[in-house]
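Deliverable D4.2, example record:
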Amino acid sequence: MTNTATPLNNRGGDAGESRLKAAIFNEFSWIWGGTILLFVVCAIVAPGVIKPGAINTMLPFAAILAITAVGMTIVIQQRGLDMSLPGTMTLSGLLFAKIGFLTDSTLLAVPATLLIAVVIGSVNGLLVARVNITPIVTTLATNAILLGAVRTISGGSYMTAPEELAAFSHSRVAGIPTTVILAVLFIIVVSLVTKRSVAGRRFVAVGANPAAATAAGIPILRYQVATYAVAALCYAVAGMLFTGYIGTASHIAGNDYLLPAIAAVVVGGTPFSGGRGSVIASGIAALFMTLLGQMVLALGADTSVQLLVQALAIIIAVTIRYLPQLFLFFR
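Output generated by the structure prediction step:
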């Protein structure tokens, strides 16, 4: 009699192979290949963009965008959209400079700025989760208030960044920009927390199905409020780094980061349906979007064309994600 049963060790090997394929080929993995392809395209049509000097100049801005994308990713995982990014980022850079000069202490300015950002994010979270105001409406209103505060504090003018912040933003460790190292740390920590911890799994459950999470006894209010607080913390760090890198606290610093941050999240593969998401893919997508913008500028296009390209990147990314469903629909 022939034994057709599959050996247990083979089954284990097949299961391990399946898990490996799922980890490598998923909705978040294509951005790696897309980024490599973009580097190849740049080498052909705009080789100056990928020269060492240009890369060194680009990486800090890509890192700052990656940090904002981390915050936007976790908000989108909770089925939200944080439109207060420009106001929070701008106000944080301005407050850091203001508090730093008033107290003559960056050690005091950093926690004070971060605390204010956490309060802003917590208010957003409470209005969304407790008062049930639509996230986009809540954060748009908050952004308007924050930009009004920026105008009041700055008077519409620039403020010089503290020397310590400027030195930190331009510093390097083993030739790597400190901003890049900080962005990588943000991505690693958030990724580990959301994927490896109990709190992270509950966070994903709340984003995927709030009703089911409530039925399971998960305190969804706590997670929803914390989401916006952590996102605001990310924007504040990005705002301070940006202020230090350009050397001034601008009253319009965050305006150019909202669409790229959303684009990085969408291009990275995080869906608006909630739950699933990858801050690692969003971080790589931030590099992709920054390099794409530099390529467009190197080809002689103006800023308006760059915005158009970012919008097209979002549309293409969403279309690619739903192509399998479209094929099934037309079969």
